[in-house]
Amino acid sequence: MRNRGGSAANNVEATVFWAPPSTLLTPDQWNPLGSTTLPSVPTGDQLTVSDAIQWQAADIPAPGHYCFVALIGATGDPAPAPADFLNWDNFRSFIRNNNNVTWRNFNVVNNTPPAGAQPPGFVAMPFLMAGAPDKARRMRLEIASRLPAKAEAMLEMPLEWAELLKVAVRPVKGADRERRGVVAIKPAGRTAFADVVFPAKARIAMRLLVKIPEDMRKQEFEIYARQMYGDEEVGRVTWRLAPPRKPQ
Q1: What are phi and psi of 90, to 5 degrees?
Q2: How many CB atoms sit inside 10 A of residue 160's CB?
Q3: Rounded to two decimals, what is the model's pTM?
Q4: Whole-number Cα distances in Å, 34 to 15, 69, 75, 226
Q5: pLDDT in tens, 151-176
Q6: Which 3 state secondary structure label does DSSP give 159?
Q7: Quick one: how far is CA 21 from the chain centroid?
Q8: What is the pLDDT of residues 12-40, one digit of tens each?
């Protein structure tokens, strides 16, 4: 934690949650991980580190990518309560204006596809699109990337969602990916899909699929998916495609 205020913050409590990678990370997706308290966080923007938070083994999810959310409160400046943000307007105000929360929905992935990758040669990056917690609302998905011109990028989605977006997709074959299709994404620039009604509490499983040319896999590139409510960004997931790291 850092304290940019004019006086020390006392009895500072940090509560941490984990959540699946989602372009809209509403509190109904947060799962409690643990909490810790610091007697004081001094002023002067000094980095102050807490003791370790014990994450019980039984609560740890399956292997994969996850997002961490931390709520921080202190005497005189209490942390917001997640239940307050099941109200859509409260949640929007929260992510725009609140300095007592931070999350890191950012993944670093190997830009070399694993053996047996499907489709062959592509790196798969799964994420969720989510609906608002209170009622159905119109939103849209946007994909933006800084990939080399020779790269290939696709978005995989349920066929019923492709029908809703009115995009032509190529069906994905294979028993484990039935009723899904892929649509091409611009390797550089932004691809915006239509505004559609997202059902309340929807959880729509998507996958970004990227193929980096072999002669460029020693470099790093970024791609992100973000969810828009009108002209307002309400959530984002970013991936950095990087070369394999050498063991230290």
Answers
A1: -65, -40
A2: 10
A3: 0.83
A4: 6, 11, 20, 28
A5: 999 999 999 999 999 898 988 876 45
A6: helix
A7: 4
A8: 999 999 999 999 988 899 999 999 999 99
